[in-house]
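User: Okay, second chain of the day. Same drill as before: sequence in, structure tokens out.
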Amino acid sequence: MLENEALAYDFYDDEDELDLVKLVSTNANDANQYLLFLDSKGHYYGKNVSKIEELVVYKDLNIVKNNDNNLIVGTADVRGEMLTLVSFDKWIGSTILDDKDYELVIIVSFGGYKFGLVVKAVEYITTIEPSNMQDNASGNSKSTFISKVIVDKKEVLCTIIDSDKILFDVFGDKKDRVSMDLDILNSNNVKSEKIVFFADDSSLIRNLIHKTCTRLGIKHQIFNNGNELIYELNQTSKDDIGLIITDIEMPVLNGKEVVKILTHDEKYRDINILVFTNMSNHIMEAELLQMGVAKVITKIDIKALAKTINEYIKI
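Assistant: Same drill. Structure tokens below.
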């Protein structure tokens, strides 16, 4: 198989569809596995499999439609659970098709929310190595990076969407809670002059972390990916480093690779590493803790993050 070549499935074959769901579940601990799907214009997008619970056929769902012309299609009964359905095409700004042209719903779970993304088609699963990812946040606020993948022996571009941005755009209560949590933070909680180093590919999250550390009165440096974080750590005196916080899903160098590098370097042995992520399945969390991570925090819980920083930062 060629590098970054995707695995193709025919979704008109029920057996293949079940195989794909099984593959998603099997690889849920792999930080580099992505489910590729199409918008109405045939552009490829990707979502990490660790955030996906299952795929369901759109036409088979019992749905109460929303007529307010917003991002929410309606509410569906998915195996006895009422879930919000979100129009991916409307969120990404693509052409809206007739209902009959949408094939599948990707059931996702992250950031404390479980909901469905209604998409035109889901076609592939692929491995995308961090070294093959290009930061795309400056060009598109709804994406974090872009990568070339091989589909049917042809090279195509795949955009990885910003999951945190979806939550903020669709679920207003999430944004309101984060704003309230930021408002009540104060600098009396943290007593350290050392620097917090933080890496995340999402510009939204980087902005929130900057606001959090500023309100706590903490010195901090924020980076777009793990490679930038590692480089700056190597330029910094060990005595100035108070805490290291990293996301998992990042271009160039992902969070698991960052943890591996730091835990094998004597210089950082007594500095705590936190993981701030939406990739929060129990298998991955257990692996991270075994690797040497002090704690895994689920995005976007600002109160928990502030409390954990206070607990683990070096004085």
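The first helix runs from residue 14 to 26.

User: Thanks, on to the next one.
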